[in-house]
Amino acid sequence: MKEYPTKGLKRLIFFILCALILLSFKVSAQKNNASYQLRIHRAAIPVKIDGLMEDSAWQEADSACNFYMVLPMDTSYARVKTEVKMCYDDHNFYLIAICHKIQSRRYYVESLRRDFSFLKNDNFIVFIDTFNDLTNGFSFGANAAGAQWDGSMYEGGKVDLNWDNKWTSKVKNDEDKWVFEMAIPFSSIRYKNGVKTWGINFSRNDLGASEKSSWAPMPRQFPTASLAHTGNILWDEPPPPSEANISIIPYFLGGISKDHQNKTLAKFKDEVGVDAKVAINSSLNLDLTVNPDFSQVEIDRQVTNLDRYELFFPEKRQFFLENGDLFANFGYASLRPFFSRRIGLGVPIDYGARLSGRLDKNWRIGAMDMQTGSLSSINLPAQNFTVAAIQRKVFSRSNIGVMFINKQSLHYNNLSDSAKRVYSEYNRNVALEYNLASPNNVWTGKAMAMKSFTPGKQNRDLVQAANLQYNSRKWLLNWQHEYVGKNYNAEVGYVPRNGYFKINPQAAYLFFPKAGSILSHGPKLVYLLYTNESLRRTDDEEYLSYNLNFRDQSVLSGWVSHDYVELQQPFDPTNFKKDTLARGTQHHWQAFGANFTSTPESLITYDVSTRFGGYYANGNRYNVIANIGYRFQPFVSLALNVSYDHISLPAPWSLTKFWLVGPRVDVTMTNKLFFTTFIQYNEQMDNINLNTRFQWRYKPASDLYLVYTDNYLPVPFLVRNRAFMLKFTYWWNVKVVRKNKEIEI
Question: 145, 530, 601, 657: which is deepest, by most CB within 10 A?
């Protein structure tokens, strides 16, 4: 039998690629909202960030007002009034937003926690496209209580909130309005020198009015972050040219840990490390790190894992985040040639360097080199990771990208034969990708090809994949297919399975009633088919749902599905009891369920999802997941995540029950002082985890952390391990002016 995709498959791939390219030619003479313009003028004196609107610069600045409603409908002006003004000086650009209220009502926020949930807070956010390429940018904002929100933008409208940088803001509340004022240092963002036009849009979410609005009009099917629909800010002169800015960020860490389960002695830890950010110019940045430590990074939220393949958890470490899309967004969510969490996973990172940014409006580059240490306990050699990416903008918003990844084991010849069987001498990947984004964002898509190079794994080491999506007000249509060869190997990537061909079409439609409590409703149909390389079916799923979106922003949906699985490897359907179903066994079942998300303006918010139906080996599985939140605004937010699985199977599994319970408390004394306690009881992992984190942001981007972590055995209730960490970081700006050095502390 053939082991490669057929000629018909190759023709399909060629057709999708041609469609992607042809759609890219639909280029408009100017972007959609180019007529929406806000002029920004130089301020005579620096603006004081106090939320009071008393500076003379605000009296003279032009204003952006007459916001358009986006939700619940995008056919009228917003009911709540918002006014925005901007200005700048040699070091910062400033923004003030006056957010008027309907009557004198209270505002709605979760807490003062940074990077809050957009939909659960009254908030104002600005999206800035500094290169006016409609694809990448920066986002800054705050909720009505003053909690900050910032992120880097990629793929035309996605925001990575793990990105963090240096800026200041203040929120002032009055009876009839709340005012947000901010200052963004030019050194905190990337832009092209000499350019006088940036893309921009302003977004307002008002829960009391059940309304989301934007300055430049936005079709309701897109997020207000969509850069395809930004207006323009026009500078009276180009923003100040970049200086040779250098940021030195040292850290000092002390800690103690003890493994109680294995009765080892307590280990004391004292470390010093440093990060550095060097602005090569205003659009290109060099990140350096020596002996980094990421112990203060917020822990992952656990899930009950009943999947046959590895779970994905997002990158949260700051060093990897700026221009992170250049590295992390090749491929799809379940098919990535590069995944930065493969670097330094349980292994110390000695040092690293990362160059990323723009050469000009059309070219972006990224290069990274990381060196990890060895672990003698498992014979792991020291390893070097090299990643290089280059991206070229084509047509109005599309781009072509190339990536190279190399993982190299050092001193490999010194390893024992047993270690060589575990760790390869090298693994290399080359990837080519075309990303489609039409001028109005209605058409999006991707076509990609990847090849790996690994000793002992030749042939059948290719990946071919593509998708094409149409998203209008009423229709969502998507086609996606993937081919992954049996020997494709991405040791620094995320590729959960090999040796398959997949097709995944889906379609959804929305009806819009003219009146009543229901804003929109409609069906969604998804089909998922996996075959082996000979195109013989191994998995498929048919999924039909019906969704009701209410005017108060609550959502109700119901669904039914049919699943078929032919196991390609032995599998424990509980991922707990270790007994396995045999390879080649066939399983099929039907299931149904419902999901409900409450209105976000309530002090109590919740969402519930259920699943009832069959499972492997003619068994049954019942699942309930609930997320409940309560806020004592603006200082305390309580959350409880609960998941329960009831799995009935024939012997030897019989009845299996899993609880996953995760209560969380966020106490935010101010928008600079945070205390978080997160407990996770995972019955599947037979573990209770306690993570308590105190953070004091004593200066912008400078922090003091206290982190306490416990892991317990539930029955009998015993301590497994315990750790305490104190970490101090300081962001130190060094400005190099000609031959002299000016140091700002």
Answer: 145
Residue 16: pLDDT above 80? no
- Do residues 381 and 410 touch, judged by C-beta distance below 8 A? yes
pLDDT at residue 98 above 70?
yes
Three-state DSSP class for residue 273: strand
Question: Cα separation of 178 and 704, whole Å?
Answer: 30
- Alpha carbon distances (Å) from 120 to 92, 111, 140, 293, 662: 30, 10, 17, 32, 20
**Average pLDDT estimate for 196-208:** 94
Q: What distance lies between CA 18 and its chain's CA centroid?
A: 30
- Give strand pairing partners of 249: 275
To which residue do tokens 């999708």 refer? 16
Burial of 574 (0-12, 13-18, 19+ CB in 10 A): buried
More confident site: 46 or 740: 46
Burial of 43 (0-12, 13-18, 19+ CB in 10 A): buried
Q: Going along 373-471, which residue ranges are E strands?
A: 383-394, 398-409, 426-437, 443-453, 462-471
Angle at CA of residue 324, ends 350 and 119, nearest 5°: 125
Sign of CA pseudo-dihedral 104, 110, 111, 113: negative
Closest by CA position to 204, among listed 322, 53, 94, 102: 102
Q: What is the DSSP letter of 237?
A: S
**CA-to-CA separations, 181 to 64, 99, 168, 240, in angstroms, rounded:** 15, 11, 9, 21
Q: Are 356 and 366 in contact (CB under 8 A)?
A: yes
**Dist. CA 471–CA 458, nearest whole Å:** 40
The pLDDT tens digits of the residues spanning 394-432 come to: 988 899 999 999 999 998 888 888 777 888 899 999 999
Supply the DSSP string of 496-565, one letter for each residue. Answer: ---SEEEE--EEEE-B--SSSSEEEEEEEEEEEEEE-TT--EEEEEEEEEEEEEETTS-EEEEEEEEEEE
pTM to 2 decimals? 0.85
Closest CA to 327 of 352, 290, 307, 347: 352
Domain 31-235 sits in CATH 3.30.2420.10: no
Q: How many Cβ atoms from other residues are within 10 Å of residue 433's Cβ? A: 22
CA distance 485 to 464: 9
**What pLDDT is stored for residue 742 in this prediction?**
43
Q: Could you please report the per-residue DSSP string of 621-666?
A: EEEEEEEEEEEETTTEEEEEEEEEEEEE-STTT-EEEEEEEEEEEE
d(CA 81, CA 65): 7
Burial level of 123, CB count in 10 A (0-12/13-18/19+)? buried
Give the chain's mean pLDDT: 89
Report the greatest alpha carbon distance in the chain.
Answer: 79
